[in-house]
Amino acid sequence: MRTLTVALGERSYPIHIGEGILTRCGELLPPLPSRRAVVVTNPIVAALHLDGLQAALLAAGISNEVIVVPEGETHKDWATLYEVHTRLLELGAERSTTLIALGGGVIGDLAGFAAATYQRGIALIQIPTTLLAQVDSSVGGKTAVNHPLGKNMIGAFHQPRAVISDTATLRTLPEREYIAGIAEVIKCAAIRDLALFEWLEANMNRLLARESAAVAHAVLESCRIKAEIVAADERETGERALLNFGHTFGHAIEAATGYGSWLHGEAVAAGMVLAATLSERVAGLPVAQAQRIRALIERAGLPVEPPAIDADRWLDLMSRDKKTADRATRFVLLTALGEGVVRDNVGAQEVNAVLRTG
């Protein structure tokens, strides 16, 4: 097991990464407000991993109850959040109760937002069971639900007390979901770490085969990058925006196609190709490096072409993105592999040109 720290002063927390650590999570938990927890999960994850988690919690003297919500991005909405709040009230959950998110990014975001808002905030533990959640969404404290007009537009920052990532849970992940998670690993490398990008180029086949050492390295390095960025800019006032590379286009894809039609990682992958093309035009990214990004995404089995979306619809959805500033769409671009920048002054003509060619 390896442990990283998200350094946020008194609110610092560990990220534990290892194979088979779910069954010993009781000993990995930090001091909790009480010995009571409520687990939020979905039916698929519950069938695979809930028994092991509950046994570990009981062995650590932590009583627990379970809230099961429907599976899928379409249920990361206000109605499902309301149901979680309702169940917490029915269970008599107190301010000292800890909420545990067991599942992928949807569960982490939904349970995290419930923890942020129930009785004005209760303790949260993230136990991600998908690659995307382990390398990205479980770390950093972003929680949200979707709205038909925009993804993750309603939410709160609420840092967990700990993140426990058992890489063994990835063996049960469907192939499509596993591959979607690789998009976020590529993103971390593209914005911050040329060495990781080169490692991905050399080891993509091992990662696709889910070799334990390759998976562990990808999760560890992605979390290291994200932990460093979050520690420097928790509320996304500057550097943290780099983590949105590919997401301005990607979120528009998800909203336009209906949440769940394209998985988040798939939309981000196509979005990164568009962002790389835009980077060529306005940020000086060498053409050969943009081609390397596209080639790596394609090797991972991820989409490199966006769905057919009317140009006006693209622009409307991107204008609603939460990364806009002074009504100008903010883009994360690359000046070189491993070197991301945030640009607010990208001309509409340049964006339109990329959308037409994309």
Taking strands numbered 1, 2, ... along the chain, how are they ordered across the largest sheet?
1-2-9-6-5-3-4
Work out the oligomeric state of the chains in this entry: single chain
Report mean pLDDT, rounded to a whole number: 95
* Domains, number: 2
Query: Can you tell me the CATH superfamily of the largest domain?
Result: Dehydroquinate synthase-like - alpha domain
Please state the CA-atom Rg, rounded to the nearest Å. Answer: 20 Å
- Described by the principal axes of the CA atoms, the overall outline is globular
- Helix count, DSSP H or I runs of 4 or more residues: 13
The count of β-strands is 11
CATH topology of the largest domain: Dehydroquinate synthase-like, alpha domain
- What does the main sheet amount to? 7 strands, mixed
SSE pattern: EEHEHEHEHEHEEEHHHHHHHEEH
Helix/strand-derived category reads: alpha/beta
Strand content: 15-25%
The end-to-end span amounts to 42 Å
The CATH class designation of the largest domain is Mainly Alpha
CATH architecture annotation of the largest domain = Up-down Bundle
Helical content, roughly?
Answer: 40-55%
**Which residue ranges are poorly predicted, with pLDDT under 50 across at least 5 consecutive positions?**
none
Describe the overall structure.
This protein has 358 residues and is an alpha/beta fold. The chain folds into two domains: 2-172, Rossmann fold (3-Layer(aba) Sandwich); 175-357, Dehydroquinate synthase-like - alpha domain (Dehydroquinate synthase-like, alpha domain, Up-down Bundle). Helices cover 47% and strands 18% of the residues. Helix 3 (78-90) crosses helix 4, helix 5 runs parallel beside helix 6 (175-192) and helix 9 (247-257) packs across helix 12.
